[in-house]
Design a protein that fits this description.
Blueprint lengths: L1 E5 H14 L11 E7 L2 E7 L3 E8 L1 E4 L1 E6 H10 L4 E7 L2 E6 L2 E6 L18 E3 L2 H6 L16 E7 L2 E7 L3 E6 L8 E6 H10 L6 E6 L2 E6 L2 E6 L8 H6 L3 E8 H11 L8 E7 L2 E8 L2 E8 L1 E4 L3 E5 L2 H9 L4 E7 L4 E4 L3 E5 L20 H19 L5
Antiparallel strand pairs: 1-5, 1-7, 2-3, 2-6, 3-4, 4-17, 7-8, 8-9, 10-15, 11-12, 11-14, 12-13, 13-26, 15-16, 16-17, 18-22, 18-24, 19-20, 19-23, 20-21, 24-25, 25-26
Helix pairs in contact: 1-2, 6-7
Protein backbone atom coordinates (compact mmCIF):
# COMPACT_ATOMS: atom_id res chain seq x y z
CA UNK A 1 0.00 0.00 0.00
CA UNK A 2 1.28 3.43 -0.95
CA UNK A 3 -0.56 6.75 -1.13
CA UNK A 4 -0.18 10.52 -0.64
CA UNK A 5 -2.93 12.50 1.06
CA UNK A 6 -3.61 16.02 2.34
CA UNK A 7 -2.58 16.05 5.99
CA UNK A 8 -5.37 18.32 7.26
CA UNK A 9 -8.08 16.33 5.43
CA UNK A 10 -6.83 13.06 6.86
CA UNK A 11 -6.38 14.56 10.33
CA UNK A 12 -10.04 15.70 10.37
CA UNK A 13 -11.23 12.23 9.32
CA UNK A 14 -8.88 10.50 11.79
CA UNK A 15 -10.12 12.68 14.66
CA UNK A 16 -13.71 11.70 13.85
CA UNK A 17 -12.67 8.04 13.81
CA UNK A 18 -10.95 8.47 17.18
CA UNK A 19 -14.26 9.69 18.67
CA UNK A 20 -15.93 6.45 17.57
CA UNK A 21 -13.13 4.02 18.49
CA UNK A 22 -13.52 3.24 22.23
CA UNK A 23 -10.51 4.34 24.26
CA UNK A 24 -11.10 1.41 26.65
CA UNK A 25 -12.20 -1.92 25.22
CA UNK A 26 -11.47 -5.59 25.92
CA UNK A 27 -10.93 -5.89 22.15
CA UNK A 28 -7.71 -4.04 21.37
CA UNK A 29 -8.57 -3.97 17.66
CA UNK A 30 -11.57 -1.69 18.37
CA UNK A 31 -9.13 1.01 19.49
CA UNK A 32 -7.85 1.16 15.93
CA UNK A 33 -8.74 2.95 12.70
CA UNK A 34 -9.00 1.15 9.39
CA UNK A 35 -7.32 2.88 6.41
CA UNK A 36 -8.34 1.48 3.03
CA UNK A 37 -6.92 3.00 -0.19
CA UNK A 38 -8.69 2.16 -3.46
CA UNK A 39 -10.01 3.86 -6.63
CA UNK A 40 -8.62 7.29 -5.81
CA UNK A 41 -10.23 7.44 -2.35
CA UNK A 42 -8.93 6.76 1.14
CA UNK A 43 -11.60 5.34 3.44
CA UNK A 44 -11.14 6.05 7.15
CA UNK A 45 -13.32 3.71 9.23
CA UNK A 46 -13.93 3.06 12.93
CA UNK A 47 -16.43 1.10 14.98
CA UNK A 48 -17.43 0.36 18.56
CA UNK A 49 -19.76 -2.43 17.35
CA UNK A 50 -22.70 -0.24 18.44
CA UNK A 51 -21.58 2.59 16.14
CA UNK A 52 -19.78 2.65 12.83
CA UNK A 53 -18.25 5.53 10.86
CA UNK A 54 -16.74 5.81 7.40
CA UNK A 55 -15.15 8.96 5.98
CA UNK A 56 -13.79 9.12 2.43
CA UNK A 57 -11.19 11.63 1.25
CA UNK A 58 -9.22 12.11 -1.97
CA UNK A 59 -5.79 10.51 -2.18
CA UNK A 60 -3.07 9.95 -4.77
CA UNK A 61 -2.85 6.15 -4.65
CA UNK A 62 0.06 4.37 -6.30
CA UNK A 63 -0.63 1.00 -4.65
CA UNK A 64 -4.00 -0.01 -3.20
CA UNK A 65 -4.33 -1.76 0.13
CA UNK A 66 -5.69 -1.65 3.69
CA UNK A 67 -4.13 -1.38 7.11
CA UNK A 68 -5.18 -1.08 10.77
CA UNK A 69 -3.47 1.51 12.94
CA UNK A 70 -4.07 2.69 16.50
CA UNK A 71 -6.57 5.58 16.37
CA UNK A 72 -4.80 7.80 18.92
CA UNK A 73 -1.40 7.11 17.40
CA UNK A 74 -2.61 8.05 13.92
CA UNK A 75 -3.99 11.38 15.13
CA UNK A 76 -0.82 12.08 17.10
CA UNK A 77 1.43 11.57 14.09
CA UNK A 78 -0.71 13.73 11.83
CA UNK A 79 -0.79 16.57 14.37
CA UNK A 80 3.01 16.62 14.68
CA UNK A 81 3.79 16.50 10.96
CA UNK A 82 3.94 19.95 9.39
CA UNK A 83 3.88 19.43 5.62
CA UNK A 84 0.71 19.92 3.60
CA UNK A 85 0.87 16.37 2.21
CA UNK A 86 2.00 13.14 3.89
CA UNK A 87 3.00 9.79 2.41
CA UNK A 88 1.88 6.39 3.73
CA UNK A 89 3.82 3.28 2.74
CA UNK A 90 3.29 -0.21 4.08
CA UNK A 91 6.16 -2.69 4.21
CA UNK A 92 4.99 -5.98 5.72
CA UNK A 93 3.79 -5.27 9.27
CA UNK A 94 5.31 -1.78 9.32
CA UNK A 95 3.64 1.45 8.20
CA UNK A 96 5.89 4.37 7.29
CA UNK A 97 4.31 7.83 7.62
CA UNK A 98 6.49 10.63 6.27
CA UNK A 99 6.18 14.35 5.77
CA UNK A 100 9.11 16.67 5.12
CA UNK A 101 12.10 15.60 7.19
CA UNK A 102 10.04 13.52 9.65
CA UNK A 103 9.35 9.79 9.31
CA UNK A 104 7.35 7.51 11.62
CA UNK A 105 7.51 3.72 11.49
CA UNK A 106 4.73 1.93 13.40
CA UNK A 107 3.50 -1.64 13.67
CA UNK A 108 0.16 -2.38 11.96
CA UNK A 109 -2.22 -5.28 11.36
CA UNK A 110 -4.18 -6.63 8.39
CA UNK A 111 -7.76 -5.68 7.51
CA UNK A 112 -8.88 -9.27 8.15
CA UNK A 113 -8.28 -8.72 11.87
CA UNK A 114 -10.72 -5.77 11.99
CA UNK A 115 -14.47 -6.26 12.67
CA UNK A 116 -15.53 -3.83 9.98
CA UNK A 117 -19.25 -3.05 10.06
CA UNK A 118 -20.79 -2.86 6.61
CA UNK A 119 -23.00 0.21 6.36
CA UNK A 120 -25.80 -0.44 3.86
CA UNK A 121 -27.62 2.33 2.03
CA UNK A 122 -31.24 2.65 3.25
CA UNK A 123 -33.94 2.18 0.62
CA UNK A 124 -35.90 5.22 1.87
CA UNK A 125 -34.33 8.33 3.35
CA UNK A 126 -35.40 11.75 4.57
CA UNK A 127 -33.32 14.95 4.80
CA UNK A 128 -32.14 16.00 8.25
CA UNK A 129 -30.33 19.12 9.49
CA UNK A 130 -29.66 20.62 12.93
CA UNK A 131 -28.50 17.39 14.60
CA UNK A 132 -26.30 19.11 17.26
CA UNK A 133 -29.11 21.46 18.32
CA UNK A 134 -31.62 18.63 18.53
CA UNK A 135 -29.22 16.58 20.65
CA UNK A 136 -28.61 19.51 23.00
CA UNK A 137 -32.35 19.95 23.53
CA UNK A 138 -33.11 16.30 24.35
CA UNK A 139 -30.10 14.29 25.54
CA UNK A 140 -29.91 16.10 28.90
CA UNK A 141 -33.36 14.75 29.83
CA UNK A 142 -32.77 11.02 29.28
CA UNK A 143 -32.33 8.58 32.15
CA UNK A 144 -28.93 7.39 33.37
CA UNK A 145 -30.29 4.21 34.95
CA UNK A 146 -29.05 1.12 33.10
CA UNK A 147 -32.12 -0.82 34.25
CA UNK A 148 -34.30 1.33 31.95
CA UNK A 149 -32.69 0.96 28.49
CA UNK A 150 -35.59 2.57 26.60
CA UNK A 151 -35.41 5.65 28.83
CA UNK A 152 -31.71 6.04 27.96
CA UNK A 153 -32.77 6.76 24.38
CA UNK A 154 -34.10 9.70 22.40
CA UNK A 155 -37.36 8.95 20.61
CA UNK A 156 -37.09 10.29 17.06
CA UNK A 157 -40.37 10.74 15.18
CA UNK A 158 -40.69 11.59 11.49
CA UNK A 159 -44.16 13.12 11.12
CA UNK A 160 -46.10 15.10 8.54
CA UNK A 161 -44.94 18.24 10.41
CA UNK A 162 -41.28 17.23 10.33
CA UNK A 163 -38.84 15.68 12.78
CA UNK A 164 -39.59 15.63 16.50
CA UNK A 165 -37.48 14.25 19.33
CA UNK A 166 -38.39 13.27 22.90
CA UNK A 167 -36.19 12.50 25.91
CA UNK A 168 -37.30 11.67 29.45
CA UNK A 169 -35.99 10.26 32.73
CA UNK A 170 -39.34 10.07 34.53
CA UNK A 171 -38.88 13.40 36.35
CA UNK A 172 -38.92 15.57 33.25
CA UNK A 173 -39.78 15.36 29.57
CA UNK A 174 -38.10 17.29 26.74
CA UNK A 175 -39.98 17.51 23.43
CA UNK A 176 -37.97 19.25 20.69
CA UNK A 177 -38.84 20.29 17.16
CA UNK A 178 -36.38 19.27 14.47
CA UNK A 179 -36.07 19.79 10.72
CA UNK A 180 -39.52 20.65 9.32
CA UNK A 181 -38.49 19.10 5.98
CA UNK A 182 -37.89 15.70 7.59
CA UNK A 183 -41.43 14.53 6.91
CA UNK A 184 -42.50 10.91 7.05
CA UNK A 185 -44.33 8.29 9.06
CA UNK A 186 -41.69 6.48 11.11
CA UNK A 187 -40.21 6.51 14.59
CA UNK A 188 -37.39 4.73 16.43
CA UNK A 189 -35.36 4.76 19.63
CA UNK A 190 -31.79 5.99 19.24
CA UNK A 191 -29.50 5.67 22.30
CA UNK A 192 -28.69 9.14 23.59
CA UNK A 193 -24.97 8.32 23.61
CA UNK A 194 -25.14 7.53 19.88
CA UNK A 195 -26.95 10.78 19.12
CA UNK A 196 -24.31 12.69 21.08
CA UNK A 197 -21.55 11.04 19.04
CA UNK A 198 -23.26 11.99 15.79
CA UNK A 199 -23.67 15.57 17.05
CA UNK A 200 -19.89 15.75 17.58
CA UNK A 201 -19.23 14.74 13.97
CA UNK A 202 -21.54 17.12 12.09
CA UNK A 203 -22.66 20.76 12.24
CA UNK A 204 -26.15 22.23 12.34
CA UNK A 205 -25.78 23.30 8.71
CA UNK A 206 -24.82 19.85 7.43
CA UNK A 207 -27.61 18.35 5.35
CA UNK A 208 -27.79 14.61 5.93
CA UNK A 209 -30.04 11.85 4.66
CA UNK A 210 -31.38 9.45 7.29
CA UNK A 211 -32.96 6.04 6.94
CA UNK A 212 -33.30 2.75 8.78
CA UNK A 213 -31.82 -0.58 7.71
CA UNK A 214 -33.03 -3.45 9.85
CA UNK A 215 -31.97 -2.75 13.43
CA UNK A 216 -29.81 0.28 12.59
CA UNK A 217 -30.23 3.85 11.45
CA UNK A 218 -27.86 5.39 8.90
CA UNK A 219 -27.03 9.09 8.49
CA UNK A 220 -25.31 9.98 5.23
CA UNK A 221 -23.87 12.87 3.29
CA UNK A 222 -21.16 13.13 0.67
CA UNK A 223 -18.20 10.92 1.71
CA UNK A 224 -19.73 10.44 5.18
CA UNK A 225 -21.55 7.39 6.58
CA UNK A 226 -22.64 6.96 10.21
CA UNK A 227 -24.53 3.94 11.50
CA UNK A 228 -25.99 3.36 14.97
CA UNK A 229 -27.78 0.36 16.41
CA UNK A 230 -31.37 1.07 17.46
CA UNK A 231 -32.99 0.11 20.76
CA UNK A 232 -35.94 -2.25 20.59
CA UNK A 233 -39.04 -1.66 22.72
CA UNK A 234 -41.92 0.73 23.22
CA UNK A 235 -41.86 4.36 24.27
CA UNK A 236 -44.61 6.44 25.84
CA UNK A 237 -46.75 8.75 23.69
CA UNK A 238 -45.54 12.25 24.59
CA UNK A 239 -48.12 13.98 22.39
CA UNK A 240 -50.96 12.15 24.10
CA UNK A 241 -49.51 13.00 27.50
CA UNK A 242 -49.37 16.69 26.59
CA UNK A 243 -52.99 16.65 25.45
CA UNK A 244 -54.01 15.55 28.95
CA UNK A 245 -52.30 18.42 30.77
CA UNK A 246 -54.92 20.58 32.48
CA UNK A 247 -53.66 24.09 33.08
CA UNK A 248 -54.23 25.95 36.35
CA UNK A 249 -52.57 29.19 35.19
CA UNK A 250 -50.04 30.49 32.65
CA UNK A 251 -47.44 33.25 32.80
CA UNK A 252 -44.88 34.73 30.40
CA UNK A 253 -41.24 35.45 31.27
CA UNK A 254 -37.72 35.49 29.82
CA UNK A 255 -35.74 32.24 29.83
CA UNK A 256 -32.39 33.86 30.62
CA UNK A 257 -33.82 35.88 33.51
CA UNK A 258 -35.41 32.85 35.11
CA UNK A 259 -32.31 30.72 34.53
CA UNK A 260 -30.04 33.32 36.15
CA UNK A 261 -32.45 33.68 39.06
CA UNK A 262 -32.53 29.95 39.74
CA UNK A 263 -28.74 29.71 39.44
CA UNK A 264 -28.26 32.57 41.89
CA UNK A 265 -30.33 31.00 44.67
CA UNK A 266 -28.61 27.61 44.22
CA UNK A 267 -25.41 29.15 45.59
CA UNK A 268 -26.37 27.83 49.05
CA UNK A 269 -26.50 24.23 47.86
CA UNK A 270 -25.41 21.65 50.42
CA UNK A 271 -25.93 17.99 51.28
CA UNK A 272 -29.56 18.75 52.17
CA UNK A 273 -31.63 20.66 49.65
CA UNK A 274 -35.08 22.24 49.33
CA UNK A 275 -36.13 24.22 46.26
CA UNK A 276 -39.47 25.80 45.46
CA UNK A 277 -41.14 28.31 43.16
CA UNK A 278 -43.85 30.59 44.51
CA UNK A 279 -46.36 32.46 42.35
CA UNK A 280 -48.30 35.50 43.44
CA UNK A 281 -49.95 37.64 40.77
CA UNK A 282 -47.27 39.20 38.57
CA UNK A 283 -44.43 38.03 40.79
CA UNK A 284 -42.43 34.77 40.73
CA UNK A 285 -40.17 33.90 43.66
CA UNK A 286 -37.62 31.11 43.89
CA UNK A 287 -36.14 29.74 47.09
CA UNK A 288 -33.30 27.34 47.80
CA UNK A 289 -32.47 26.17 51.30
CA UNK A 290 -29.80 23.86 52.67
CA UNK A 291 -27.91 23.32 55.90
CA UNK A 292 -25.58 26.11 54.71
CA UNK A 293 -28.30 28.71 54.58
CA UNK A 294 -31.27 30.02 52.63
CA UNK A 295 -31.48 32.15 49.49
CA UNK A 296 -34.46 33.75 47.76
CA UNK A 297 -34.91 35.86 44.62
CA UNK A 298 -37.84 37.36 42.77
CA UNK A 299 -38.63 38.39 39.18
CA UNK A 300 -41.61 40.05 37.53
CA UNK A 301 -43.71 37.99 35.14
CA UNK A 302 -46.69 38.60 32.87
CA UNK A 303 -49.84 36.62 33.79
CA UNK A 304 -51.63 35.25 30.71
CA UNK A 305 -54.41 33.07 32.08
CA UNK A 306 -55.78 31.97 35.42
CA UNK A 307 -54.66 33.42 38.74
CA UNK A 308 -50.97 32.73 39.40
CA UNK A 309 -50.70 31.60 43.03
CA UNK A 310 -49.25 28.86 45.19
CA UNK A 311 -46.01 27.17 46.16
CA UNK A 312 -44.50 24.31 44.12
CA UNK A 313 -41.50 22.09 44.85
CA UNK A 314 -39.08 20.72 42.22
CA UNK A 315 -35.60 19.20 41.85
CA UNK A 316 -33.41 22.24 41.22
CA UNK A 317 -30.72 20.56 39.09
CA UNK A 318 -33.23 18.99 36.71
CA UNK A 319 -35.09 22.28 36.34
CA UNK A 320 -31.83 24.09 35.57
CA UNK A 321 -31.02 21.55 32.85
CA UNK A 322 -34.32 22.37 31.17
CA UNK A 323 -33.72 26.12 31.36
CA UNK A 324 -30.19 25.76 29.95
CA UNK A 325 -31.62 24.04 26.87
CA UNK A 326 -34.19 26.80 26.24
CA UNK A 327 -33.81 30.34 24.91
CA UNK A 328 -35.95 33.41 24.28
CA UNK A 329 -39.45 34.10 25.55
CA UNK A 330 -40.66 31.41 27.92
CA UNK A 331 -44.27 30.46 28.60
CA UNK A 332 -44.69 28.83 32.01
CA UNK A 333 -47.76 26.76 32.67
CA UNK A 334 -48.65 25.16 35.98
CA UNK A 335 -50.84 22.09 35.62
CA UNK A 336 -53.45 21.18 38.20
CA UNK A 337 -51.17 18.39 39.48
CA UNK A 338 -48.28 20.85 39.97
CA UNK A 339 -46.31 19.86 36.85
CA UNK A 340 -44.37 22.79 35.39
CA UNK A 341 -44.65 23.11 31.59
CA UNK A 342 -42.01 25.34 29.96
CA UNK A 343 -42.56 26.27 26.32
CA UNK A 344 -40.33 28.04 23.81
CA UNK A 345 -40.56 28.01 20.02
CA UNK A 346 -38.51 24.83 19.54
CA UNK A 347 -38.68 23.02 22.89
CA UNK A 348 -41.28 22.01 25.45
CA UNK A 349 -40.09 20.77 28.86
CA UNK A 350 -42.30 19.24 31.51
CA UNK A 351 -40.89 19.19 35.05
CA UNK A 352 -42.70 16.91 37.49
CA UNK A 353 -43.24 18.24 41.02
CA UNK A 354 -42.08 16.60 44.23
CA UNK A 355 -43.63 16.60 47.68
CA UNK A 356 -42.44 19.29 50.03
CA UNK A 357 -39.10 17.99 51.32
CA UNK A 358 -38.39 17.61 55.01
CA UNK A 359 -37.29 20.69 56.88
CA UNK A 360 -33.56 21.33 56.86
CA UNK A 361 -31.82 20.05 59.99
CA UNK A 362 -28.92 22.26 61.01
CA UNK A 363 -26.18 20.02 62.43
CA UNK A 364 -25.27 20.99 65.99
CA UNK A 365 -21.59 21.03 66.99
CA UNK A 366 -20.64 18.11 69.18
CA UNK A 367 -19.50 18.96 72.73
CA UNK A 368 -15.78 18.76 73.15
CA UNK A 369 -14.63 15.67 74.96
CA UNK A 370 -12.58 16.26 78.10
CA UNK A 371 -8.94 15.31 77.97
CA UNK A 372 -7.93 12.22 80.00
CA UNK A 373 -5.71 14.34 82.27
CA UNK A 374 -8.60 16.72 83.03
CA UNK A 375 -10.89 13.79 83.86
CA UNK A 376 -8.23 12.37 86.22
CA UNK A 377 -7.81 15.67 88.02
CA UNK A 378 -11.58 16.03 88.39
CA UNK A 379 -11.84 12.56 89.98
CA UNK A 380 -9.02 13.34 92.43
CA UNK A 381 -10.69 16.61 93.42
CA UNK A 382 -14.04 14.83 94.05
CA UNK A 383 -12.29 12.17 96.13
CA UNK A 384 -10.55 14.81 98.24
CA UNK A 385 -13.83 16.63 98.86
CA UNK A 386 -15.45 13.39 100.09
CA UNK A 387 -12.49 12.67 102.46
CA UNK A 388 -12.64 16.17 103.92
CA UNK A 389 -16.37 15.85 104.43
CA UNK A 390 -15.85 12.61 106.37
CA UNK A 391 -13.43 14.20 108.96
CA UNK A 392 -15.38 15.48 112.02
CA UNK A 393 -14.86 19.06 113.00
CA UNK A 394 -12.67 19.68 116.06
CA UNK A 395 -14.53 20.48 119.28
Amino acid sequence: MNFIVNRQDLLAAAQDAEKIAPAASPLEVLKCTLLSAAEGKLTVAATSLELALERRIKADISEEGSVIVDARLLCGMLRLLEDEFVTFTREGTTLRVSGGSSVYSVSVSDEKDYPRVEIPFPADTVPVTGIPSMAKRTVFAVAEDNSKPQMRCVHLLFTSDGLKAVGSDGYRIAMAKGDSRSTGAADFLLPAASLEKLAQLVSNKDRLSAGTTGKSVVFMMEDFLFSARLMEGDYFDAEQLMSRVQSAFTILTDTESLRNTVQSVCAVRGEQSRFCITFKGSSLSVMHESELGKSTAEIDVLPLSGSPAGEYWYIADKLLDCLKAQHGTLMLEIAVNGALVMRTDDLICIQMPVREPKAIVIPQPKPKAEKPETKGKAKKADKKKKENAAIPEAA
